[in-house]
Design a protein that fits this description.
Length: 403
């Protein structure tokens, strides 16, 4: 059972979370509870670090920002004890959960659950500080923001758990953001691959890495609210999903930018000369489209987050001087948004992309860039039409009704 920051935001909420734990204990389970820091706490800790040292030592950053979870782990164990549920806390290093040494974005290498399992045998339930581990050098590491989801899935896999319940402040995964359309619907089930697309496309219920891990180790994830007793959404293997629609979700990214290099040479090595420097500059490139060429010249368009545009243009201008990519002009459009339809049913249905395009056309929305994958179609459109596009697509694919 994993409880996010809003579910452990104060002592009352920790008690509320502990009631959920007691219910599962009474149902006969051995429970491992993974907790986040109290809501807002990690942000405060990051800010303290930055105030002391803007170019901080990442090892000390981790020592500081991991501490929020230590507090909630101890408080949760105490709260459970007060409810007569035998429990003790573990910090990441005590387990130990060993990670690599990439401080601030560490990756898990191994989890030794033998001590914890021995304690289960003695009737103790485990409370684990999420988000943190220990490097081979013996330093505290953190898994990146939102990382306690990943801790929870990793522990579920290591312990061979029947389920990994992710308690949060929403009652499940929705067909799209309910703030955009009141017709958005909670999904009973969603396949790992769909969830992966939705998570990486900005549906912020789960850290993307946690879904990757769950898919790899086939950990069944139940996303549910700690404040009401609904069924939640089960994230599972597609074989467990009997009825599925062609499209199951609509994701979007509001702050995208489109950059076009006009009049580049159509010859080997040009794409590498463009995207190499962009990667080195840390620009997160998403869609890439190259036009067909005329007289040996072509245009290359790509998208990236608006925040990356200054870095991208600087990198391209520098690359122009050193590698002479030889473009005639750079055109930047920072007023675009990306909308994507996602569904495993697309693999076996034709006409899905066409339906998306026709729906947008009927609303008079121009499509600027298109990309597709096996289970997703994404388009870039003018940002001011984002809400309209999401609503129209939600209706067109009947997402308000269950399969
Ligand atoms: N407390 C950490 C964060 O805010 C980890 C988490 O909550 O998942 O990023
Ligand atoms: Mg979180």
């Amino acid at each position: 059972m994993k409880f996010g920051g809003t579910s452990v935001a104060d002592l009352d909420r920790i008690r509320n979370a502990a009631h959920h734990v007691r219910r599962e204990v009474e149902a006969g389970y051995d429970v491992a509870v993974v907790v986040s820091a109290m809501a807002g706490r990690t942000n405060e800790l990051v800010e303290l670090v930055e105030r002391v040292s803007p170019m901080y030592d990442a090892r000390e950053y981790d020592a500081v920002v991991s501490s929020g979870e230590n507090v909630t782990a101890g408080l949760m164990a105490l709260t459970l004890q007060e409810m007569d549920v035998p429990a003790r806390s573990w910090q990441g290093w005590q387990v130990p959960m060993v990670t690599d040494s990439s401080h601030g974005v560490a990756r898990i290498r191994s989890i030794d659950t033998s001590h914890m399992e021995q304690k289960f045998g003695e009737g103790l339930h485990a409370v684990i500080a999420g988000f943190q581990g220990i490097s081979p050098e013996g330093r505290i590491t953190t898994l990146g923001r939102g990382g306690s989801d990943t801790s929870a899935v990793a522990f579920a896999a290591a312990l061979g758990a029947e389920r990994c319940d992710i308690y949060t402040d929403v009652d499940g995964v929705y067909t799209t953001d309910p703030r955009i359309t009141g017709r958005a619907r909670r999904l009973d089930r969603i396949a790992y691959e769909e969830m992966l697309e939705l998570a990486s496309l900005g549906a912020k219920v789960l850290q993307t890495r946690s879904v990757e891990l769950a898919m790899r180790y086939k950990v069944r994830l139940l996303v549910r609210s700690s404040f009401e007793n609904g069924p939640g959404t089960l994230v599972c293997d597609e074989e467990e999903i009997v009825e599925s629609k062609v499209v199951n979700g609509i994701a979007f990214q509001r702050d995208e930018a489109k950059i076009t290099l006009i009049g580049i040479a159509d010859k080997p090595g040009v794409a590498a000369a463009i995207f190499g420097p962009l990667a080195e500059a840390g620009v997160v490139v998403d869609m890439i489209v190259q036009n067909i060429s005329e007289d040996g010249l072509t245009d290359m368009t790509f998208s990236c987050p608006v925040a990356d545009v200054p870095r991208a243009t600087r990198a391209l201008e520098a690359a122009e001087r050193t590698h002479s990519i030889g473009y005639r002009d750079i055109v930047t459009d920072t007023e675009v948004a990306k909308v994507s339809i996602v569904g495993i049913g697309m693999r076996s249905h034709s006409g899905v992309a066409q339906k998306m395009f026709a729906t947008l056309a009927a609303e008079g929305i121009n499509i600027k860039v298109i990309t597709t994958s096996e289970i997703k179609v994404s388009v870039l459109i003018d940002r001011r039409y984002l809400e309209l596009a999401v609503r129209a697509l939600h209706d067109a694919f009947d997402l308000q009704d269950a399969a």
